[in-house]
Amino acid sequence: MGGGSSSAKYAHIVDVLRERIVRGAYPLGSMLPSESQLVREFGASRSTVVRALEYLRQLGYLEGVQGKGRLVLGTPPRRRPSPPARTYESLHAPEVGNGTVVGAGRAPASARIAAMLAVPVGEPVIVRQRIMMGSAVPWSTLSTVYLPAVAAVGTRFADVDPLREGVLDHLERRRRLVATDVVERMTLRAPSARESTLLAVSTDDVVLAILLVVRNSAASPLLAIDLAGILPPAGIEELFSLR
Amino acid sequence: MGGGSSSAKYAHIVDVLRERIVRGAYPLGSMLPSESQLVREFGASRSTVVRALEYLRQLGYLEGVQGKGRLVLGTPPRRRPSPPARTYESLHAPEVGNGTVVGAGRAPASARIAAMLAVPVGEPVIVRQRIMMGSAVPWSTLSTVYLPAVAAVGTRFADVDPLREGVLDHLERRRRLVATDVVERMTLRAPSARESTLLAVSTDDVVLAILLVVRNSAASPLLAIDLAGILPPAGIEELFSLR
DNA sequence: CTGTCCAACTTGGTTAGTCAAGTAATCAGG
DNA sequence: CCTGATTACTTGACTAACCAAGTTGGACAG
What we know:
Strand order of the largest sheet of chain A: 3-4-5-8-7-6
CATH architecture of the largest domain in chain A: 3-Layer(aba) Sandwich
Protein name (chains A, B): DNA-binding GntR family transcriptional regulator
Number of strands of chain A: 9
Keywords (chains A, B): DNA-binding, Transcription, Transcription regulation
CATH topology of the largest domain in chain A: Chorismate lyase
CATH superfamily of the largest domain in chain A: Chorismate lyase-like
Largest sheet of chain A: 6 strands, antiparallel
Oligomer: homodimer
Radius of gyration of chain A: 25 Å
GO molecular function (chains A, B): DNA binding; DNA-binding transcription factor activity
Strand content of chain A: 25-35%
Organism (chains A, B): Actinoplanes italicus
Number of helices of chain A: 8
Pfam family, one (chains A, B): GntR
Structural class of chain A: alpha+beta
Shape of chain A: elongated
């Protein structure tokens, strides 16, 4: 199946209908002509028409309602992108072979941590730190994972042994959770004393801190990861697709 | 159409075939059983089988070759993500109503610019600067667009009038080009004298510089944008989908 | 041994038909 | 006037069949 480049009949129907939606001949919120009407208009079989409609549905132009019709959604909005590779790696790369766990345990949530995780100040949280340095990584970083202690029950976050899967994979698997999005917040700040020590930098240096808050479909935080690091002079790169 | 959650016959076929691919029953590089064989195995019509196969093809598990068969591609790799919203805006948001163009003209390419654009040092390039400040933007930035002067022929990049479309949209439209990816490189540095002046910051401050290099399918640079700005204390946020 | 042709297979696309399930409008009865 | 049943429409899914186009392997002639 494809769109415009094929000369197949279904592809022609896709093109005509999409053009009509895009130029407003079928406005947002209106109902598309029924399959029967389109069969007559295009002189095509119902299967061929439905094939074109299914393709438009997948692209986000239409929503089918059984028994009623197909609702025009207008031009599909740009979808929310997937995370950049570095964020993806932070969530999914196995800890094993990927730096050193330098601490794991419980602590009461500070105001900042409480805000991150949407829990009360003082609530016990699990804090797990791992450091990644050396030429195998694009930038030296200290990764600090936070999650509520109650949410960590049944997981291995409080152990210092590195996980054989990504931190998010581990949480989703052990707690049967489903993460749906991640908020990434980037800030510049001075390193803490501990960060200075672990990253072997001066407290006068500037660290790039990226806070990731992973959420479920109700937008509730499941997990937060604070990545703090020193960018190399050449910076760090990411590649994104424009197609 | 969908995958596993439906009880429809085609959905069941999707699940079974995907599971076989994932666990290696159909290894990467092998040919899937033919449609006829699958029709017999599942006791389904060819249309129902093909519907399942088309879905798997769209997910990236299979590649059909007319007359030959369907090649197993294995578990589809993670697709390259689309740019984060802020990068997307830099490329596609219309300049009009979005900051002030503070300079536009020709200059010989410095070594740095030459490297960015894959042109010889000294080659004439168009440099276009726009500043975005104030509460309407998440961070104050100076955007500097660079492209080879020969590539800018027929465009309005050398004018100080703001464009009514995004810079990449303008280039693609006027020059009939197709951009396929963008490399984003993030660095921290001190502001230049001009940046200090335009951004109203001290030369002792740290700017976050994001260099975007937009490329075509041959990985040739079409356009470079240097975004330099001061992060607010709260940082800047992005949202990414994990589904 | 090589080149050509053909049969048998494959996928890509189209058609016509059926049944299931949902929605909405209409009509009859109370 | 209200309610339940019915009818006519819709989409979701499945089936059987056909034609077009591509690939491959085997048979045969030179």
